[in-house]
Amino acid sequence: MNFIEELKWRGMLHTMIPGTDELLDKEQVTAYLGIDPTADSLHIGHLCGVMILRHFQRCGHKPIALVGGATGMIGDPSGKSAERNLLDEATLRHNQEALKKQLSKFLDFESDASNRAELVNNYDWMKDFSFLDFARTVGKHITVNYMMAKDSVKKRLNGEARDGLSFTEFTYQLLQGYDFLHLFETKGCKLQMGGSDQWGNMTTGTELIRRTNGGEAYALTCPLITKADGTKFGKTESGNVWLDARYTSPYKFYQFWLNVSDEDAERYIKIFTFLTQEEVDELIAAQKADPGLRPLQKRLAKEVTTMVHSEADYNAAVEASQILFSNKAGELLHNIDEQTLLDIFEGVDKFEIERGDLDGSVNIASLLTDKAKVFPSKGELRKLAQGNGLSINKDKVTDINLPATETMLLNGKYILIQKGKKNYYLLIVK
């Protein structure tokens, strides 16, 4: 595989320093990509960079994932209008371990191959670097004029930020530049990769390497991923879409990819899967022939959910998404986990009931009118039930005088009420 050609057809190449492709053709190259350590999980905004590292390793080159422990304590002004919060060392170390565990799903860190991946943290070489040493080793080689010309600096100085640009943030490009110099000198790293918003910081690194020891270094960026309507990729109403199931359940993760637009699906399937060009072309043709079947979205959701979580999680997500339409919905409801149940019925009206209401002394009619105001009257409830319009946990109920018991509970805590075809309510035991 040719790394540059692979990125090109996938739409993952934005800019590169001339000569980068020749370098990659000539030798096994070591390259690094920086990852923000401000959380203990990656989100899908990181995923394009991770995929680039994976492609890089698959093409026989050596990837380094750099966790920005030191730079995470400062904050990168690129593309931001405010200074970020600073992290303490204990938090950074915890985040680093969590990120390595996630990255291990994509990269080979453990084998004895010459191109096995490495994880490094720039805090390790920056923590004992005194200000005087930094000024002498780095500061004297890069002029203020050079730093001021960077877009990330100019934008912040031209009024895009309320509070201007702090000296701490101004020095960020020097710190990132020194990372490249350090990895160039200690690990023979000749290439830095990242998002297109990092181009200014990356070229500061190549310039620092050139000015300190005359070395040749290179940079390559991928485009920033957006949605077809120009809005930010990876954000939902509830925030980031995380790779960690603690923050975004596999069901919600699967649903995110399943619900992207046709236009986005055509781009994303190239970027976020390892399907071949022939496989992608076949899917695109199938989508154009019958858009209603949505083969692109279905395959995209399958590939990414399986890659990030597991095949079992993917199968469970598919099953859960079919609950509302399945003939075996009642059985399926009793088998799904609590978080998935809540995700499926997010936004439906919820009522709290007492566990004592399910001791058999209260019938269904009283439960759904007196204890939880799902129905305004028993008369309306009776009429709906007689017309086959009442379901409890997706099972039809016609006798509203039956006792309400704990056997009705899902996950020991919930009862799903369906009124007609589309109206759902969730009873929750306090």
Explain the layout of strands and helices:
Layout lengths: L2 H8 L4 E2 L3 H7 L3 E6 L11 H12 L3 E6 L21 H15 L14 E4 L1 H4 L4 H7 L6 H5 L2 H10 L6 H4 L1 H16 L1 E7 L3 H15 L4 E5 L12 E2 L2 E2 L9 H9 L3 H10 L5 H13 L5 H14 L2 H11 L7 H7 L2 H7 L4 E5 L5 E5 H8 L6 H9 L3 E3 L2 E2 L6 E3 L8 E6 L3 E7 L1
Parallel strand pairs: 2-3, 2-5, 3-4, 5-6, 9-15
Antiparallel strand pairs: 1-6, 7-8, 10-13, 11-12, 11-14, 14-15
Helix pairs in contact: 10-11, 12-15, 12-16, 13-14, 13-15, 15-16
Provide tags for this entry.
alpha/beta, 6-stranded mixed sheet
- Overall number of strands: 15
The gross shape turns out to be elongated
Number of helices: 20
Oligomer designation: single chain
What ranges have pLDDT less than 50 throughout 5 or more consecutive residues? none
Quote the average pLDDT. Answer: 90
Largest sheet: 6 strands, mixed
Structural class: alpha/beta
State the end-to-end CA separation. Answer: 58 Å
Q: State the strand order across the main sheet.
A: 1-6-5-2-3-4
Task: Describe the protein's architecture and organization.
The structure is a single chain. The protein is 44% helix and 15% strand. The radius of gyration is 27 Å and the shape is elongated. It has 430 residues and is α/β, with parallel strands linked by helices. The mean pLDDT is 90. Strands 1-6-5-2-3-4 form a six-stranded mixed beta sheet, with helices on both faces. The chain is built from 20 helices and 15 strands. Helix 11 (199-213) links the parallel strand 5 (189-195) and strand 6.
